[in-house]
Hints:
By secondary structure, this protein is of the alpha+beta class. It has three domains: 84 residues, Rossmann fold; 61 residues, Dna Ligase, domain 1; 180 residues, ATP-grasp fold, B domain (D-amino Acid Aminotransferase, Chain A, domain 1), CATH 3.30.470.20. The protein contains eleven helices and 17 strands. Helix 1 crosses helix 10 and helix 3 packs antiparallel against helix 4. It is globular. It starts with a strand and ends with a helix. The site of adenosine-5'-triphosphate (ATP) has 16 residues, from strand 14.
Amino acid sequence: MRIGILGAGQLAQLLAHSAYTLGFETLCYAESSQQPATRNSPLFIGELKDNKRLQEFLSKVDLITIENENIEVETLQFLESHLPLLPNSKAIGITQDRLLEKQFFKSLNIPTTEFIAIDSLTALDSASKQLPFPALLKTRRFGYDGKGQVKLSTAHQTSSAWKTINEMPAILENFIAFDTEVSIIGARNAAKQISCYPLITNHHEQGVLRISTLSTTPHSLQQQAENHLSTVLKELDYIGVLAIEFFVKNNQLYANEMAPRVHNSGHLTLEAFSCSQFELHLRALANLPLPTLHLKQPTAMINLISKLPDNKLFLKEPNLHFYDYGKLARPYRKLGHITITNNNVQALNEKAIQIHQSVTDLK
Ligand SMILES: Nc1ncnc2c1ncn2[C@@H]1O[C@H](COP(=O)(O)OP(=O)(O)OP(=O)(O)O)[C@@H](O)[C@H]1O
Ligand SMILES: [Mg+2]
């Protein structure tokens, strides 16, 4: 089995690493050769708009998956007309557009933040009279790590906010003073089997994920999240791993967004569970049985952003793993992550915060 992956960043790198443990091969389609995945996988260089190159790529793989949802739907449909694209183009198309995603959550009765579609300053002025402040203006497409977002505190800020997002199609949504943020990650295979992990708690700073830990939220939230995940997976006839991010307020979940792929908050599954999110995704793609996901050991994950610290400072710790994606350092860029394990959850979470503080560049 050779899996074609569109993209060759760190998610492709970690998928390729897991593919090796299943006896699968990978081939990553990328527009340039300077890519993290080259450490673990051969690359196939081509432009995403080049159908001839895509056709050649198609002839070398058995199925196609993605590591990034921001690929034009026409390209996805072209690939899908030749080989299985997993997850399918409809699922990817919805998740790459915040407006479609929010409308989709609403149509399935999955609670989400209030939102209004914005395509002009006039629309933004009128929406800002309908939603309370503070509110967030977010571009419909291409947002990540808090990019393409502006917080509005008063109606006077509409004009500058509209300029800040370069007058791109957007949504205005209400700001939620959440108690915490969580994500659910799970997968579905062609045999319609679904398997998902316990909720993961996520701590962001300046819109960027910094620390993920296993949640200590009540069982009722796990049930709610699993129900929402299963509803989405079935509705989209989805195959592969899907992640949904939620805000938690007063023991209620509000869907923020979803990712049709392995997710940064799921990196702790590498050490925490009997099967990682990367292996789970590959198993789902190959329609292999999805295993029950046993917790092996409590694990926390800390992102390494902007500047990679020296691994020698950390590796004296025996229960620590240091993942270096091999990327050039740039402000706010995710360059690697650390996972640590400890059966004492309180000590583990304290250690995660300590490591985060020692590596952080973002204040
Ligand atoms: N409506 C909101 N109310 C409160 N905080 C919010 C809201 N929307 C976003 N945030 C904060 O900003 C973070 C990033 O927002 P969001 O997940 O929508 O954007 P993103 O740039 O796509 O992020 P990601 O890196 O997860 O793809 C959230 O995890 C949350 O901490
Ligand atoms: Mg997010």
